[in-house]
Sequence to fold (206 residues):
Amino acid sequence: MAIFNSSASTNPVKSDSYRTTRQETKNGFTLIELLVVVGITVVLTTIVAGYSREGGRQLALVGTETKMLNLFSRAKFLSVETFFGGGRSGEQRICAYGVKVNTSAEELFIFQDLSSEAKCPGTSNGIYNDGERLTGELNEVKLGNTAAVFGGSDLSEVIFIPPEPQTKVRRTDNSEVSEAKLTVKLREGVGQFVITVNNVGQVKAE
Fold:
């Protein structure tokens, strides 16, 4: 009697159609990736721009400080020079040079102390008078169009009288003092410097 085995063992073979591997191809950024990149770029640009503006203001403040210190030094130098050179301004004798602080106009400038007589002190009075101002870039510092502004001052003017030169410092109430200060700060942001002038001719900034 023949016996038939109906349960023949088979080894199922999976075709390639069942073993397809998912392949991803990217031809560019997705929308989310682009938004992330743009967001990061905006944040970094804002930070860099902020540092750039602040750095620019600080540099402007340092530049203003240097110009003011040079102004005082120039007035002192001109005072000594005019003594040995017998300086004159037209028909008037130059007896001294000084620096005037005008906080309302936001400026400093060099002035000449003039005498109508041939010798000093003559009619010079050791203070600034109308018509004694020197003009030009080397003789003035204007804050009106800069990043700096006066932050307070009890210094009205300082005058250097040759030959030493003797230094006289006046406050805003026109009283003569041994020392006075001028503060300059940034219009926007944090930063300032203080110039101190005393009656021995020392001018320093801090």
Remarks:
- The chain has one domain: 52-205.
- The first strand starts at residue 88 and ends at 89.
